[in-house]
Design brief:
Blueprint: H1 2-21, H2 26-49, H3 55-79, H4 84-106, H5 116-134, H6 142-186
Length: 203
């Protein structure tokens, strides 16, 4: 069920793009993108509540998050609802985290679990981006909504950036663990001993 919600988030992303750049229905597009943001909360809740946490889900959920956030911010820039420099900052953060994940995988290091601060920041941005898209147009309500949304967006982005920086020492510890494990198993093949329990960085 949680993985199905993650895949539903991708389907909603496609519908959002179709509504935004097809009939130019920004309000409907914003509602659909907002719904995608809600599924980001629901899949984690369902996984924990019903004990359905899986290795696939731990990889799929943050991957879908990055796809949705990256696509949403780029489309918002193209639509004119978000400045290009905001997209550059958001995409730089996503590239940093994705590069770290790929590096860990390439070196055979253990995967780092997503921390709460990162999930909160991502969720905040996934709520704010559709509001910024919906507020980009005529109507007396759009200006106050845009201002209020920016007030929430800035700390959300800072939270996600802080989480990305918090992953760096965890990634370094995971790489050191992987190097230590490789050295321990490869130094004396004829007398290999069981790998000691890892007590380094938190998961």
């Amino acid at each position: 069920m949680p993985n199905a919600l993650s895949l539903l988030r991708l389907a909603l992303l496609g519908l959002y793009l179709g509504l935004l750049f097809g009939p130019d229905d920004r309000v409907a597009a914003a509602l659909v993108l907002g719904g995608a943001g809600v599924t980001d909360f629901l899949d984690g809740y369902v996984a924990r509540r019903f004990d359905q946490v899986s290795t696939v889900g731990k990889v799929l959920d943050p991957t879908v998050d990055r796809v949705v956030v990256g696509t949403a911010v780029v489309s918002a820039v193209v639509y004119g609802a978000v400045p290009a420099w905001v997209a550059a900052l958001v995409l730089a953060r996503e590239a940093l985290v994705s590069s770290a994940v790929l590096l860990l995988a390439a070196r055979g290091a253990r995967r780092i679990d997503v921390i709460w601060l990162g999930k909160a920041g991502t969720f905040g941005m996934m709520v704010c981006l559709p509001l910024l898209v919906g507020a980009h147009g005529p109507g007396g309500w759009t200006r106050p909504l845009a201002v209020a949304t920016w007030v929430v967006f800035v700390p959300s982005f800072l939270a996600s950036l802080s989480a990305a920086l918090a992953y760096l020492p965890r990634a370094r510890a995971a790489l050191e663990d992987a190097r230590g494990a490789g050295a321990g198993t490869g130094s004396d093949p004829g007398h290999a001993s069981p790998m000691p329990e890892r007590k380094g960085a938190p998961r």
